[in-house]
Specification:
It contains 2 helices and 8 strands, in the order αββββββαββ. By secondary structure, the chain is α+β, with helices and mostly antiparallel strands.
């Protein structure tokens, strides 16, 4: 096979691959839209941590996955995600000083805005997974969370 034929074959395969439609979400996942309102800053990054186990809930690095979103001048963000069906909880922070961590006072209480799914507002201790969990079982679900300043 000469070089020209090989190049044509590679270019054709690349273009064919680019035209292939994206895989549809699995039947074991569902589309969920997370809406976070009452953002304190219209420019500071909002971080969303998704948990699907009680044991890992609110433990550093134990989330199933996380997303960072810039509000781009808005007081509300909307984030569509495909989640495996089952129980989930979301913890949210807004990194006001962009130091890529949740700042806390000497009592380990966050000094930056935060929120949890089900709009749980802890008073003395961090919430439990069971308080914050929601069930993902079909498409079109919306989880609305108000950020706490």
């Amino acid at each position: 096979m000469n070089v020209l034929s090989l190049c044509s074959l590679l270019i054709g395969a690349t273009l064919l691959g680019a035209a292939t439609p994206a895989a549809a979400p699995s039947a074991d996942t569902a589309s969920v839209t997370v809406k976070v309102s009452a953002l304190v800053s219209t420019s500071s990054t909002v971080k969303l941590y998704f948990y699907n186990t009680r044991a890992g809930f609110l433990k550093s690095g134990k989330w199933a996955f996380s997303k960072s979103v810039k509000p781009e001048g808005k007081r509300e963000i909307t984030l569509p995600v495909d989640l495996p069906k089952g129980e989930w909880a979301v913890a949210i922070t807004q990194d006001m000083n962009n130091n890529d961590k949740v700042d806390k006072n000497f009592l380990c209480i966050p000094t930056e805005p935060y929120a949890f799914s089900n709009n749980i507002r802890p008073t003395v201790a961090a919430p439990d997974f069971n308080e914050c969990k929601f069930r993902v079982d079909g498409p079109g679900q919306v989880v609305s969370i108000v950020l706490k300043d």
